[in-house]
Amino acid sequence: MLSKRSKLLVLAFSVLFLIILKHVIDHSVEALHQVLQLIAYASLPIAGGLIALSSCSLLGTFTEVENSATWHVLRWVSEDPARNFFIGFFITAYLNLIRPPLTANLPFLPYIEWVMIALAVYVVYDMTRLSTKEFYVGSESLDWKRHVQEVRRETGRDLVRLTSVMERFVDHGVKEPLLVYLALHLQRLGATEERILKTLSSLTDYQKNAGRYKLFFLVFPWTKRKFAMRNKETREVLLNNLLEKIDRL
Fold this sequence. Notes:
Blueprint: H1 4-27, H2 34-59, H3 68-78, H4 81-105, H5 109-134, H6 148-151, H7 157-172, H8 176-188, H9 193-199, H10 201-204, H11 214-219, H12 221-247
């Protein structure tokens, strides 16, 4: 995985590459060979895609924030590199290759664009709204909250962090921090490595199965809402069963 500095360098290179290509296309493309013209036009949206990809990836390095809603938005933005690349690709292709000839024939094009932008903002907002609200659900509404004191009897920051890793698993399927906490807890209880692996097998084997629905989410936010709720309920049941198994040790 690239470091934050490497991602920043990739972003700077992508922006510079786009500026150079734009300058060539605007001022000296006619002097180029036909093949080079084609390469320049094809490379322009690729540069835009790289900018979007590196920008979103760089934002993903700032996910360690205290605000839960901000953490969710940053994680959503950075979790799908292919989506980010193609969004940047198509936006750059539209602005630089498709829009200029359309503007001369469609004087009302800016109004259509503003409507599309508003719809895109609404879709993104609707896709993130459900999960961000889940961070503020009271502890009384979540059955697994009652196990917090049983699994980790420490108070203060440790308890807050355990609550946070449980929320991340239930809300978003992020299981690695929870695995670490529970494995350490079982180790303190004197469980053997074999026993720890067997106890945590359901969590270890859990896979977030959402890849095949991503394209539908971009078009149908309500599909994401329904599928996310079903996934959350499945994770709640898994976590409840796991904590009850640990309580019996």
